[in-house]
Amino acid sequence: MITASSTCAPVASNRSQIEQPLIVMEDVTMRFPIPKRYREWVLSPLRPRRFTTALSHVSFEVQAGDRIAVMGPNGAGKTTLLKLMGGLLLPSEGQVLVKGHSTLEQSTRARKSVGFVFNEERSFFWRLTGAQNLKFFGALDNLHGRELRERVEYLLELVGLKDHGDKVVSAYSTGMKQRLAVARVLIAEPDLLILDEPTRALDPIACDEIAELISARIHLHSRKTLLIATHRSEDAALLCNKVMVVEGGKIRSSKSMEDLRSDGLTVLDHYRELMAHRRTS
Amino acid sequence: MIGLLRKALAFVKRDFAIESGYQAAFVMGLMESLMLLVILHFVGQLVQPSASNSLNRSGLHYFPFALVGVAFARYFDLMLRTFSESIRSVQVTGCLEAMLCSRTGCVTIVMFSSLYSLISGALQLLLILCCGVLFFGADLRSINVPATLLVLLVSISIFVAFGVLSASTIVWLKKGDPITWVLGSLGSILGGAYFPVDIMPVWMQKLSLLIPVTYSLAALRQTVLKGASLAAVAKPVITLAAVAAVLLPASAVIFAATVRKGRKEGTLAQY
């Protein structure tokens, strides 16, 4: 175990001064209740609910401009971590600050700066077209009229769906839905993009296309701060300048790519090294 | 305010685009209502006004009485159900979290998610009343439109509040909505949609006074069938308005609290 509460330090070469962190997680613990079964209701009705701990005392900061790959085995707590930052979950203990706004106290303000790409391809209205979906979600983000239409057209082109905007989402392939999800998250131009396993369930070519979309178009265009949960070390190496490994609800490591390179390690080597104990235990 | 109206329009457009793909459902709903009118018409031929004191006193026949009662009761019932159904639907389709990620608050989302249903339900209500007049000879000429609209508005406020409360139970319990069940089933029996309240035993009549639909239907029958003025229905309207004034903000607060609980426990997207 490297540390239970790691900090992603800013990359000095990229910044002339220390900026206010975009996201601060302070000693965050997240517990989920385990629903009582009928047996428990009958045999011990007064016993309080049990909880499972998904994240335990996690602290770290994300600086503007960071591109962090969040890696870890299934069930490690990656999605919980990302959802806490996106304000979709509220911590059981500790707090998450987005641009200084607590997700507990100023949830709507905090969420303004964060865009979340779900690994859930069902998060669209399937009987609407891609363009109609984007227009609807754009309206929720306070865009309207010509501005909204132009933004939707621009984003459909950006994600390579210009010729498919009028097709219903149910006719989209998984890769196309993922592109649409990326377009949706860009509508409101958030400072931080959180992508939860954006290449999950995609074929290798579609994976590369999504990675290319993120690196060549989104990152180069806007220099947005990115947090990407991924199992693909090649995506982490291509898209990110830092890698964070989560396991058992704790941050096991947080390193810049520069540090890994100077140690002569690839992302996969580093990950394997950290996970070696799992094979032996 | 304009921003809110724009969002409301976006929800209505979304639901219209989705529902326009289900033309059969709309036609079937309409057919079902027409079938009900046929049944009420023939039942009305069996039932004499002397069967109930209130019918006898007001000189009303059963069919217009039941027409107004059933048409509006169905609309109120829709309001009870539509909020929880729309929330359940976006939970199941996986869109709830995506919507909650936006810059629109959860109360606005639940309110506007049901707007299209309420508009299409109002159209169905009008169609039912028109069919009752055109095909079955119901006489609604003496309707007092402003008074009817006011009673309707106050009633809608209450049923929207109960609807939002029932949406809260869906966010909390996922399945099984006691509010809709209690109000829907009790309302259909005790509310006086199909028969006058005064033919029930006294204890049931007393129970019916606890249900808002009883007041709404009584006032609506007065304004629609008898052309009663606002002053004549002031008592039920004030009672309903007082309940709405408390219930509407309370339901919004409770819904927001339930969503917050869902965020705390990670159960928001579960169904």
Number of helices of chain A: 10
Mean pLDDT of chain B: 88
Structural class of chain B: mainly alpha
Rounded mean pLDDT of chain A is 84
- H and E string of chain B: HHHHHHHHHHHH
Instruction: Please state the oligomeric state of the protein chains shown.
Output: heterodimer
Summarize the structure.
The complex is a heterodimer of chains A (281) and B (271). With 281 residues, chain A is of the alpha/beta class.
Describe it:
The complex is a heterodimer of chains A (281) and B (271). Chain A is α/β, with parallel strands linked by helices and 281 residues long. Chain A contains ten helices and ten strands. Chain A is globular. The two termini of chain A are 14 Å apart. In chain A, 49% of the residues are buried. Residues 1-17 of chain A have low confidence and may be disordered. Chain B has helices at residues 2-19, 23-46, 53-58, 62-92, 95-100, 106-113, 115-136, 145-173, 178-190, 202-208, 212-225, 234-265. Chain B has one domain. The two termini of chain B are 33 Å apart. Chain A binds chain B through residues 30, 32-33, 54, 80, 83, 86-90, 92, 107-108, 111-112, 114-116, 118, 120, 122-128, 132, 135-137, 139-142, 144, 184, 188, and chain B through 3, 6-7, 9-11, 13-14, 17-18, 21, 93-95, 97-105, 109, 260, 263-268.
